[in-house]
């Protein structure tokens, strides 16, 4: 067997539609795209690895390191596909995650709808015990009550537990003791806020530990399967995950703190754009990453992306700050919207074309994929407009059906608006481009920047198709589309 070598590296990124694989063999790059497998995401990685090592003429055992980014945690939060989770918190603070900070992100909207908390009220449990702001114990923890709570959680069919006590960042003893008591009766993951997000501000901290617990069973199970399957195929090398701040963490750490992966894939893209900016001396850059499910905008100054300690997942109200789910972890600051190649186009009650946030993903995919999807997506509009080569999509792995795209676009959108297929496709692309432009403007204004001063770096499977029009809308006069942009995150 050939032993692994440090100058052979592999990058893998699981997106909502495609899984991208890039293999660097002593400076020579091999890459491929395969459709994401929702039931078994690791299978898409293994299929992609098999393709690139065949093309490179190496064996799996020669791979020296694997660096992995993913949007699985993000999608689980946005689509609410996590585990049934219980929250154990301090008596009197049961509704913190629902009351939020009482700030209104749109103060003049009388019908304002706040985001629904991850954990419903009936799944939140309270216990007596209090830590002061300086870490002193003001009231002992009621351990007998915790025993009863453990029994109720065990009987409730929960898959995960979040513990968030007041001022636990100053003294985590109560949270740790509560975990010990619950763990004796429960065989499920237990996350505590003092370890997940040891920061003041209980709403953000509680919400972060809830998010961690919510996705932890799913992510831990996936990562365990991935490591097992990699070893079975002979790739027994270190595997590191890209975290939301752009650095790397071990699979073990990622399994315990999966909330750190919420911006994993997008962070890899921002680091990629920052590297290009540094190589070419570009001081003001906006990175534009559009894949199959979402689009991400990130400001890069002095060759480094902007960072923050808190960000929001799934903003719902005109991309307004405060309308999403706050996560308190170190993160590369960007704005993300549900606008990708798989985003569904539809007509609202007022007769306006809308796109997303629902995505066709890879299963069944846009109508042109021929995998059972019959609803028009952005990719269908791009195909009708002639932006895509139907015979060479994804390196020729997928043959696109132009007729299916036209039929879907006309049936669901065009006929309702008395438009032909070409005009409808143009309208769909205009709407999604304007949505992305609005998101970019909001992101720039929130950071006190003029986005038209920047150069755009566009990457991701769909970004090069929309970059020119987006630049026009934003007043940006220069754009770079890197070679191999569709797999840019891991090059």
Report on this model:
With 491 residues, the protein is of the alpha/beta class. The chain has 3 domains: 8-77 and 219-261, Nucleotidyltransferase, domain 5; 85-215, no CATH class; 265-491, ATPase, nucleotide binding domain (Nucleotidyltransferase, domain 5), CATH 3.30.420. Helix content is 35%, strand content 22%. It is built from 13 helices and 24 strands. The protein has helices spanning 41-56, 72-78, 96-99, 143-155, 173-185, 193-196, 202-232, 251-256, 264-279, 378-384, 402-417, 421-446, 463-474; strands at residues 8-14, 18-25, 28-35, 65-70, 85-90, 124-127, 130-131, 137-139, 160-164, 190-192, 239-242, 248-250, 284-290, 295-301, 304-305, 307-308, 311-313, 325-327, 331-332, 335-337, 343-347, 353-359, 455-459, 479-480. A 6-stranded mixed β-sheet has the order 3-2-1-4-11-12, sandwiched between helices. Strands 13, 14, 15, 20, 23 and 24 form a 6-stranded mixed β-sheet that branches. It has a 4-stranded parallel β-sheet with strand order 6-5-9-10, sandwiched between helices. α2 (72-78) packs across α7 (202-232) and α10 (378-384) packs across α12 (421-446). It starts with 7 loop residues before the first strand and ends in an 11-residue tail after the last strand. The mean pLDDT is 91.
């Amino acid at each position: 067997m050939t032993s692994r070598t440090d100058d052979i590296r592999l990058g893998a990124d699981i997106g909502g539609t495609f899984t991208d694989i890039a293999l660097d063999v002593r400076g020579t790059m091999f890459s491929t795209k395969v459709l994401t497998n929702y039931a078994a995401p690791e299978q898409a990685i293994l299929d992609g690895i098999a393709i690139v090592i065949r093309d490179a003429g190496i064996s799996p055992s020669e791979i020296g390191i694997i660096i992995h980014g993913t949007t699985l945690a993000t999608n689980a939060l946005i689509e609410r596909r996590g585990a049934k989770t219980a929250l154990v918190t301090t008596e009197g603070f049961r509704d913190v995650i629902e009351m939020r900070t009482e700030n209104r992100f749109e103060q003049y909207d009388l019908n304002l709808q706040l985001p629904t908390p991850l954990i419903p009220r009936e799944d939140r449990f309270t216990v007596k015990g209090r830590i002061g702001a300086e870490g002193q114990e003001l009231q002992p923890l009621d351990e007998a009550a915790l025993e009863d709570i453990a029994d109720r959680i065990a009987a409730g069919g929960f898959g995960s537990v979040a513990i968030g006590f007041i001022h636990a960042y100053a003294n985590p003893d109560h949270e740790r003791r509560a975990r010990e008591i619950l763990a004796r009766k429960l065989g499920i993951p237990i996350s505590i806020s003092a370890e997940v997000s040891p920061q003041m501000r209980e709403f953000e901290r509680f919400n972060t530990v809830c998010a961690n617990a919510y996705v932890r069973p799913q992510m831990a199970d996936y990562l365990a399967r991935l490591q097992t399957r990699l070893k079975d195929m002979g790739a027994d090398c270190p595997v590191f995950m890209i975290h939301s701040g752009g650095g790397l963490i071990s699979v073990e750490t990622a399994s315990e703190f999966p909330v750190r992966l919420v911006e994993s894939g997008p962070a890899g893209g921002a680091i990629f754009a920052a590297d290009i900016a540094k190589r070419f001396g570009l001081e003001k850059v906006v990175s534009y990453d559009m894949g199959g499910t979402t689009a991400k905008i990130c400001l890069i100054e002095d060759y480094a992306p902007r960072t923050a300690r808190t960000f929001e997942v799934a903003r719902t109200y005109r991309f307004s700050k405060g309308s999403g789910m706050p996560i308190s972890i170190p993160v590369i600051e960007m704005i993300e919207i549900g606008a990708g190649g798989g985003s569904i186009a539809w007509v609202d009650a007022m007769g306006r074309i809308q796109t997303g946030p629902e995505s066709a993903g890879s299963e069944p995919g846009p109508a042109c994929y021929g995998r059972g999807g019959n609803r028009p997506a952005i990719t269908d509009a791009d195909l009708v407009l002639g932006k895509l080569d139907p015979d060479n999509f994804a390196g020729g792995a997928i043959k696109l059906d132009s007729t299916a795209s036209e039929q879907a676009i006309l049936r669901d959108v065009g006929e309702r608006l008395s438009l032909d297929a070409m005009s409808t496709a143009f309208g769909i692309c205009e709407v999604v481009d304007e949505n992305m432009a609005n998101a970019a403007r909001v992101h720039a204004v929130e950071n006190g920047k003029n986005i038209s001063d920047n150069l755009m770096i566009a990457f991701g499977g769909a970004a090069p198709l929309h970059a020119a029009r987006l630049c026009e809308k934003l007043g940006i006069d220069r754009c770079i589309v890197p070679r191999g942009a569709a797999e840019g995150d891991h090059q």
